[in-house]
UniProtKB/TrEMBL annotation:
GO cellular component terms given for this protein: cytoplasm
GO molecular function: DNA binding; DNA-binding transcription factor activity
Species of the source: Rhodoferax sediminis
HTH marR-type domain: residues covered: 15-149
InterPro entries cross-referenced by the UniProt entry: HTH_MarR-typ (IPR000835), MarR/SlyA-like (IPR039422), Transc_reg_Sar_Rot_HTH (IPR055166), WH-like_DNA-bd_sf (IPR036388), WH_DNA-bd_sf (IPR036390)
Protein name: MarR family transcriptional regulator
Amino acid sequence: MATRKLDPDQALLLDNQLCFALYSTSLAMTKLYKPLLDGLGLTYPQYLVMLVLWERDGLTVSELGERLYLDSGTLTPLLKRLEAAGLISRIRAVTDERRVHLTLTAAGRRLKVRAAKIPGCILDASQCSLSELVSLTKQVQALRQRLVT
């Protein structure tokens, strides 16, 4: 990778920081999701858990953590609240009690139908075309992959 010399005065301007652009955009995105998710009775992190389980039901807590880049200490309280809400079941494996499998309940599966409107609302609010959002998502995912490896 070629390195370039950065002008220190320019390099330290807040508006030139990729991290700040991503952080402030994440805050704006979470704020946009809040009223949509309130209607489903979910927080944003709970919504992410449900998205993963709607893709692939029956994951273990560790598999879910890998998918969401979260540790079990962060996930456990979220999962307990989702279980208390009747959306998921946590089942310990008979052969290894450390492994906890997550399964959607009927209510959790039904919630997917109500959540289906959310991506369209986000697309509308972004004022981007679908292809622009797909491209942006792929670019951010590629950046994340380079940063975590």
